[in-house]
Amino acid sequence: MIKTMQTTEYLAEIIKELNQTTGLIVDHEAEKLVDSIINSKKIFLAGAGRSGFMAKSFTMRMMHMGLDAYVVGETVTPNLKEEDLLIIASGSGETKSLVSMVQKAKDIGATVASVTIFPESTIGKASDIIVKLPGSPKDKEQSQYKTIQPMASLFEQTLLLFFDAIILRYMEKKELSSSKMFTRHANLE
Q: Which SUPFAM superfamilies match (predicted)?
């Protein structure tokens, strides 16, 4: 029999799951990503589905900090060059469109970073920087992490919070404040 809960009880359970997964992220992997962001001329982000939404929110925050950050596929996205960074957000590391993107970036000579559940995936193996995020893939039978949530929700939520933590670490290293970020916030809304 499936245990029923109130909405706030589900929320409390989700937060417990996130507390467990965030403690499993390796600091030196995250630091490599922060340093690569600092040292890159432009930063490009890509992901599919909900992972793509998390990548877009990360791109927005980088723009607020004054970085040249772009979402792959948008009409205002410039071309990728050798001194640039491509960050791929992919739980499986096998999404065909993202695999093609990684190969193109490697051919150009850009740095590729992946944030994934599976470092041994096609995207992970091709990446210069890999950050393994714990989480449950869409196929929960392949997961060592137990979650009450559907599909890859745990990965996607961890991804959003991880990207926010990267922003905070970048701000610390560059001695930036939130007040400076507000000067770049949209003002035509």
A: SIS domain
Q: Which two tokens stand for residue 175?
A: 């001695």
What lies within 8 Å, CB to CB, of 18 at 6+ separation is 154, 157, 158, 161
Query: Do 148 and 155 contact (CB within 8 A), yes or no?
Result: no
How far is Cα 126 from Cα 19, in angstroms, rounded to an integer?
A: 30
- Taking only the tens place, the pLDDT of each residue in 60-92 is 999 999 999 999 999 999 999 999 999 999 999
- Answer whether 148's CB lies under 8 Å from 42's CB: no
Phi/psi zone of residue 175: left (φ > 0), alpha (ψ -120 to 50 degrees), beta?
left
- Residues 91, 51: contact at Cβ < 8 Å? yes
Q: Is 156 a catalytic residue?
A: yes
Beta bridge partners of 113: 87, 129
What single-letter amino acid sits at 127? S
Q: Choosing from 156, 172, 175, 189, which is the catalytic residue?
A: 156
DSSP secondary structure code for residue 7 in this structure: H
Q: How confident is the model at residue 140 (pLDDT cuts 50, 70, 90)?
A: very low
Positive or negative CA dihedral for 9, 12, 16, 21? positive
- Residues 123-141 have a mean pLDDT of 82
